[in-house]
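Annotated sample (chain length 600).
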Amino acid sequence: MALCGSAHSLLRHAAVLRSAAPLFHLGNHRNLSITSTFAPEKSVAKEGYTNRWAIAVPAFLTHLCIGAPYAWSAMSGPLTRDQGFVCSSADDWSMTSATAPMGILFAFHGLSAAMAGKWQMKVGPRAAIAAASLSFGGGFLLSAIGVATHNIGLVYLGYGMFGGIGLGLSYTPPIQTLIEWFPEKRGLASGLTIMGFGSGALLFGPTAAALLSKFSTLPTYLGSTVQTVTENGRLFAESSGKMVEVVYANAADLAKLSYSGLEEGFYVVGSGNTGAAMTLATIGVGYTVAMMASAMAIKKPHPNYKVAGVDTSSPAVQTTNNVHTDNMFKLPQFYALGTSLVVIASGGLGLIGVAKPLMSEVFGGTLPNIVTAAFASSFILMLSVGNLSGRLAWAAISDKIGRPTTFHIFTFGSIAIYASLPTIIQQVVQNQSVASLGAFCGLSVFAISIFGGVYSLLPAYESDLFGPKYVGANHGKMLLFSSTAALLGPSTFLYLRSASEKAAITDLLSKVDASCFEAKFGSPMTMADSLIEAKTVTVAKLMEIAPVGTMDPTPFLYDTSFYSIAAAITIGAITHSMIRPVDPKWYEKVEELESKPVDK
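Output written by the structure step:
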C-alpha cells in the first residue's frame, strides 16, 4: 500500500509538470504531443536568450541526483538486516549481495554512456535527461518493491540496471550543454556540473538516514534470557503461544544501530521494519520529479548565440593530431590508461561501497564512545567531500604540473595509502589511539579525492593523448574500463573480507570450549557450519565465549582487501609509466576530415 501511494504521488507530480510545460518555453500550444514536447528543437533556446547562468541550475540539479550512488553504503547496512533488524537473520542478504547494486549500477553507467553517445546528440539534452529520469527514478521504485518483497533480483534490476542506464543517459548531456553556453570558460562549465555529481552523496546520505528513521518500526523484544531451540542453524522461541524465529543482539550489534530503546537480547525476526523500502521509493519519486523538471528547463544555446567579447565563430574542435574514435581499440595508450582507471576506481568503489559498515566493524568495538552509528554515517560524508574536492582540486593541479605527473601521484600515492591502512588500524586497536583514527579517516578521504580526480582528469588526459576532436566518443569508450572496475572492485573487496571472516571464525572455533559453545548456541560444535550459514554464529558472538585474552579479529577483516588493492594499483602504476605519445600514423589525415563526421 505504501509503494502504491508513492506511485500515485509520482503520477500527480507528472500531471503538475505537464500543466506547467508552457513555463519552460514550450510554446503557446497547450495540447502538445509527447513527441513534440521532447523534439530536439525544443532543447534549443530562443534566439536572443542569453541567461546562461540559469541553465547551470538544471545541469547541476541533474548531476546532484545521479551522484547519489556514492552514498549507497547508507542503504547496504539496513539491507543486510532487513528481516532481523537488530542483526542479520538467516534469510537476510549478505554484505556482498547488499553492496552489489552499486557495482551493477556503475557497470551499466559505463556501458550505456558508451552506447548512447550518438543517440544523445541526436535527440538533444531534454529528451535524454527525461528518459534518464524515468530510468533512474524508476529504478529506485523497482528496487523498493524488491526490498519490500525480499527479492534481491528486483533490487539488482531496478537500482542496478535501470539506475545505471539512467546515470549513463544523463551524465554527459548537462556537461556538453553547459560547455556550449560557456565557450570561453569550459573548465568552469564542466566544474559547475561535476560539483553536482560529487555533491550527490552529501544529499543522499543524510536524506536516507532521516527517511530510514521516519519509516522504521522497532521489532518485538522477547527478553535477555529466553528458552530457545535450534533448527537448521536458526533460533526459535515461543511468543504468544507459537514458535517464532528469533535473533540475538549483543552490545556489539546494537552499537552499530542509530535507534534508541534497544536492549541486548532476543528479537522476533520479521517483526520490525528498517524502512528501507519506503526510503528508496520516496527518494525515487523525488529524483524522478527533479530530473524531469531539469529536462524541461535545460536548453542548448541558439546557433546565433554569442558571448560578448568572445569569438565563438572558430571551429569548436581541432582538425589536427586527432585519433578517430574508430581506432581507439587499436592503441596501447588506450589500454594502459584504462588499466590505471580500473585499479584506482576498483579501490575507490570498494571503499565507498562499504564505508559505513567498515567504520562500525573496524573501530566500533575499540572506540565505542567515538565511533557511533552517527560517526559511521559522517564517514560517508567525509568521503563524499573528498570525492567532490578531488574532482575540482586535482583538475586545477593537473593544469599546473601536467596530466602524466598528476596520474603518477594518483598511482603511487594510492599504493602508499592502501598499504598503510592495516598498520594504522592496528595502531588504533593496540593503543586506542584517536589520532590514528583521524589518520585513517584522513588517508581514506585523500584516497577518494584521487578516485574523484581520476574521473575529472580523464577527458583532459584523453584530449592530450588522442586529440580533442572526438573526446566525447573516446571518453565513452574509456568508461568501459569504469564498468569493469564497478564489477570487480566492490565484489573483490567484499569477497576478500568474507574470506577473512570465515578464517577468523574457524580460528575462534578452535579456541572456544565445546561446552561453552553448546550452552551459548543450543547446539553442539559439530553443528557449527549450519549455525554459521544461518548467521547465528558470528565473530562477535564467539568473542563472548572466547578465552580471556583472545584478540577480536573483527578490526582486521579488511586487511587483505587493502593489501590487494595496493598490489593491483602497482600494476596500474607500471602500465601508466609505459604510456608514450601516440604514433603519428594514427592521426587523422587532412583528406579524411571531410569524410568522417565529428559526432561518432
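Annotation: Residues 96 and 363 are 20 Å apart (CA to CA).
Annotation: The chain has a mean pLDDT of 87.
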